[in-house]
Write a structure and sequence with these properties.
heterodimer; A: about 120 residues; alpha/beta; Rossmann fold; 5 helices; globular; B: about 675 residues; alpha+beta; Beta-Lactamase; 17 strands; rod-shaped; binds adenosine-5'-triphosphate; binds magnesium ion; KdpD_sf (chain B); ATP binding (chain B); two-component regulatory system (chain B); transmembrane (chain B)
């Protein structure tokens, strides 16, 4: 599990997150700031993991998570990991009700954290 | 009485013109004299003359008694001649002179006596009749019979006593109109009572009003007006009018009319006045009784509708109650309450007694329509009164066709100076009472107050809702700005620091440590900022909806919470926010003040409302005025048209119940 796409509406965060993840050994194959953009990238790049911000400006990261899973159902869907500036306990209900494998608080984002969440979600 | 040769109509024995009576008397006298002469001659053709003279008095006296002195004189003269001619007495000249003298004197005295006797008998009979009529009327007065019955009895008694052809009783209305209250006619006892004589029209009523006392009108020749026309049609030659004075005020008039010009002797007015005095007494009694009852009824009715109006909220029950009360109080057959619309139509709010209720269900529009009291009120902003009596059905406004309405009164409902609507009453029978307009004011005012209350409440609620919505929007923007700005930058900064830290060579452990601490500090600040912004606006609520947001609250609560939710996925923003704040504040309070071991949240949608219950088993004793949290909640809930209830007995836990209407309200309260 190496290839990763990040979806967030904040360009600066995308850049910082990319370097952080890549330092940890994940390959960030693409980034997107909107839902359509994200769906296109996922379709084209077939990443192993997609990090999705829960609040994508006016769009909903939860919707995006559902649509990614729905769109790639035939083949093996990527692991969706939700991220947010909100804390785990605030979004737990949302994460649980979504097809995402887990959640990482943005301030704690790292390749290791992502791997842990995916691993935990896979069990 | 046996001598009664009276001139009452219906008896025609010795009546006719005075001349005919006179001649008839003379003829009878002569015939009696002839018969007497024949009788004497048969008995004794040569009688002693003195006894004979007395016998002739038997012929003269009946004539004197029945027909008076004149015919008796003829009889006396014929007696003298018959005696002198037939029996040939000695010294006929002297005898004739003496006989004539004695007979004439006797005739005059007897005739005069008989006439006097007849007069006083007649008088005492009339007096007796009058007394018993007065007694009958007085009995009715004492029994307190309905006014209409009493008036009718008086017109009948007066009519019969004075041999009238028509008796009418009328009551003066404030504008001087004389309105019929009773009538009696010789040929047709049941007269049309419901007459209205305008103030200026020539009539007994007008003259009595002008004179302030009894009047006598001899003929209505050459006079115009309905009264004069009727008088001519009936052949009325003389009318007298007597005022009915109640409590020093001219109340009405009784008009007695006859076809016979000599019907009413000069003292008739004074004697009719005895009846009008009884009528006045009865009216005083009845009016004070009726007035008392009316005031009591009216006060009770006003109290009932005022109580309803004071309850506030939807004014429809007030409309319905006012319609009921007004109808029975004012003796109307129908009532309507309408609201004016800007387009010239009006909307029915309540209606009673109409034959076609379908046209008048609450909410039904009423097109602008002429002539109708409602249009008059709309034009003048004042009470209006219309009479439809005598109008053909086709000439009536469409809404009144087939309703049989004869008159109507409507009063304006003025809400804070603005013409809002009307209350109308209508009658199929007698005209609506003259003081209805005035008495209706109390009811229009109550309706106006109810409306003003509702409107100001609705406006207040709307403006509170606007204030809260504005505040919410501001807080949402603030939260968003924090999220998109400061929080994102802090997050990025924290990650960057960690990235930098990772690149610090192992040879600089102190720098690495500093960077790590800085990143940790930043993360902490971020966490605090996040808590802060969550307090400003629950952003996650708009993302997740109410159910998950409440579950989150329950999970984060310091006191264990039992949660039971029966909710749809999403509700309108203000409802979700209000519900969220209710639960959030309640749980915060429970944790902060209640010392509870357990809390419970129930949230469910039922009958178009969202119901919330939050309770704990803590110390209770909540006081809304102690803080801002609960008071703010209550405001927020009420601004949405919901209800907020809190029960918190000391030691008995705290229970907050909230219901929020889910249907969108326009805040103007125009559901009615
Ligand atoms: N669940 C509860 N159990 C016992 N007492 C309560 C409870 N909730 C409120 N109270 C009492 O009622 C008062 C008013 O509560 P309220 O929430 O309005 O104000 P507050 O919590 O003191 O301040 P804030 O404005 O920050 O909410 C509180 O001060 C507290 O004494
Ligand atoms: Mg509080």
């Amino acid at each position: 599990m190496r290839r990763c796409v990040i979806v967030d509406d904040n360009e600066r965060f995308l850049a910082v997150a990319r370097s952080s993840l890549e330092r940890g050994g994940l390959e960030v194959v693409g980034t997107a700031t909107t839902m359509t953009d994200a769906l296109d990238q996922v379709e084209a790049l077939r990443p192993d993991v997609v990090l999705v911000d829960i609040v994508l400006g006016t769009e909903s990261g939860l919707d995006l998570a559902r649509r990614i899973v729905a769109a790639t159902e035939a083949s093996a869907p990527p692991h969706v990991v939700l991220i947010s500036t909100h804390r785990e306990d605030e979004v737990a209900e949302l994460v649980a009700s979504s097809p995402a494998v887990g959640f990482v608080w943005k301030a704690h984002l790292s390749a290791r954290a992502v791997r842990d969440v995916v691993a935990a979600g896979e069990q | 009485m046996w001598w009664r040769p009276e001139n009452s109509r219906g008896r025609v024995p010795l009546t006719g013109s005075p001349l005919r009576r006179w001649v008839a008397g003379a003829v009878v006298g002569v015939a009696l004299v002839a018969a007497m002469t024949g009788l004497i001659w048969l008995v004794d053709p040569n009688p002693p003359f003195t006894g004979l003279l007395v016998l002739y008095l038997l012929a003269v006296l009946p004539v004197a008694i029945w027909w008076g002195a004149g015919p008796a004189l003829v009889a006396s003269v014929s007696s003298t001649f018959a005696f002198v001619l037939v029996f040939d007495p000695p010294r006929p000249g002297r005898l004739a002179a003496v006989t004539l003298g004695v007979f004439t004197a006797t005739s005059i005295v007897v005739a005069d006596l008989a006439a006097g006797l007849r007069r006083s008998a007649r008088e005492s009979e009339r007096l007796a009749g009058e007394q018993s009529a007065l007694r009958r009327v007085a009995t009715l007065v004492a029994e307190g019979v309905p006014a209409a019955d009493l008036f009718e009895a008086v017109t009948r008694e007066v009519g019969l006593l004075w041999d009238a052809d028509l008796v009418r009783m009328e009551r003066y209305e404030p504008d001087g109109t004389a309105a019929g209250v009773a009538a009696w006619g010789r040929s047709a006892p049941h007269q049309d009572v419901d007459v209205r004589i305008p103030p200026g029209e020539v009539s007994v009523a007008r003259d009595v009003r002008r004179a302030g006392g009894p009047v006598r009108i001899e003929g209505f020749d050459g006079v115009r007006g309905s009264v004069a026309t009727e008088a001519r049609t009936l052949g009325i030659r003389v009318s007298i009018g007597c005022p009915v004075v109640v409590g020093g005020e001219l109340w009405g008039v009784i008009a007695v009319s006859s076809r016979s010009p000599k019907s009413f002797p000069p003292d008739t007015e004074t004697r009719v006045a005895r009846f009008t005095e009884l009528v006045a007494t009865a009216i005083t009694n009845a009016e004070s009784r009726a007035e008392l009852r009316r005031i009591a009824d009216e006060q009770a009715a006003l109290r009932r509708v005022a109580t309803l109006a004071a309850r506030g909220g939807d004014p429809s029950p007030v409309f319905a109650a006012v319609a009921d009360e007004v109808m029975s109080l004012f003796g109307a057959d129908c009532t309507s309450i309408l609201r004016f619309e800007d387009d010239g139509t009006a909307t029915y709010l309540a209606a009673r007694g109409w034959r076609d209720p379908g046209l008048r269900r609450p909410g039904t529009r009423r097109p602008s329509d002429q002539p109708a009291t409602i249009e008059a009120v709309r034009r003048t902003r004042r009470p209006a009164r219309l009479s439809y009596a005598g109008l053909a059905d086709d000439d009536l406004p469409p809404s009144l066709r087939g309703e049989g309405i004869r008159s109507g009164v409507a009063g304006p409902i003025l809400v804070e100076g603005r013409l809002w609507g009307i209350i109308g009453v209508a009658s199929r029978g007698a005209p609506i009472a003259a003081d209805t307009e005035e008495r209706m004011i109390a009811f229009t005012e109550i309706v106006a107050t109810a409306i003003a209350n509702t409107e100001s409440r609705a406006q207040l609620a709307a403006s509170r809702a606007r204030v809260i919505a504005t505040a919410d929007a501001t807080r949402r923007r603030l939260e968003r700005d924090l999220h998109d700005g400061a929080q994102q930058r802090l997050v990025s900064l924290a990650l960057e620091l960690r990235n930098t830290q990772a690149e610090v060579p192992n040879t600089l452990p102190a720098l690495s440590g500093d960077l790590g601490r800085m990143a940790d500090d930043l993360t902490e600040v971020l966490d605090e900022l996040r808590e802060l912004s969550r307090g400003i606006h629950p952003a996650i609520l708009s993302e997740s909806g109410l159910g998950p947001a409440l579950r989150t609250l329950a999970r984060r609560s310091a006191v264990p919470v039992e949660l039971s939710l029966r909710l749809a996925k999403r509700y309108a923003d203000p409802v979700e926010v209000a519900a969220y704040y209710v639960v959030s504040e309640a749980l915060t309070n429970t944790a902060k003040h209640a010392n509870a071991t357990h809390a419970e949240i129930v949230a469910e949608e039922r009958d178009g409302t969202l119901r919330l219950l939050v309770r704990d088993d803590g110390v209770g004793g909540t006081d809304l005025t102690d803080g801002t949290g609960l008071a703010g909640l209550s405001d927020r809930v009420e601004a949405l048209g919901g209800t907020f209830r809190i029960t918190s007995p000391a030691g008995g836990g705290t229970r907050i119940q909230v219901s929020l209407p889910l249907s969108a309200r326009d805040g103007q309260g125009t559901s009615w």
